[in-house]
Amino acid sequence: MTGQITVDVRLFATLRRDASASAQRLTLRARTSPRDVAKRLAISHEEIHLVFINGRVASLDQLLQDGDRLALFPPIGGG
């Protein structure tokens, strides 16, 4: 194990600060969680309502694995 993992990160709605930030591939240290990724991207965990890892609902504290696809969503209103 190299101690590093690569994760594809997608940000949705208001979490996208600009269009280029909507999708990115990050190299992270092993034992990184979505909460850690949010912190690295300067996103407060209070801004995140839904977390998906590989298309499945996950928690902010679930550990990521090499090759995972992480999607972060804010609360979304509508009507």
Topology overview:
Elements: E1 4-11, E2 23-29, H1 34-40, E3 50-53, E4 56-58, E5 69-73
Parallel strand pairs: 1-5
Antiparallel strand pairs: 1-2, 3-4, 3-5
Q: How is this structure best described in words?
A:
- The model has no long low-confidence stretch (mean pLDDT 91).
- The protein has 79 residues and is mainly beta.
- It has one domain: Roll (Ubiquitin-like (UB roll)), CATH 3.10.20.30.
- It has a 5-stranded mixed sheet, with no helix packed on it.
- The chain has 1 helix and 5 strands; from the N terminus they run E-E-H-E-E-E.
- The radius of gyration is 12 Å and the shape is globular.
Alpha carbon gap, first and last residue? 48 Å
User: Structural class, judged by helices and strands?
Assistant: mainly beta
Q: Going across the major beta sheet, what is the strand order? A: 2-1-5-3-4
Report the CATH architecture. Answer: Roll
CATH topology: Ubiquitin-like (UB roll)
CATH superfamily: Beta-grasp domain
SSE topology string: EEHEEE
Tell me the radius of gyration. Answer: 12 Å
Spatial shape:
globular
Q: Mean of the pLDDT scores?
A: 91
What portion of residues belong to β-strands? 25-35%
Unreliably modeled segments? none
- What is the number of helical segments per DSSP (H or I, 4+ residues)? 1
Percentage of residues in helical conformation: under 10%
Largest beta-sheet characterization? 5 strands, mixed
Q: Under the CATH scheme, which class?
A: Alpha Beta
Tally of domains? 1
Total number of β-strand segments? 5
What's the short story on this structure?
The protein has 79 residues and is mainly beta. 9% of the residues lie in helices and 34% in strands.
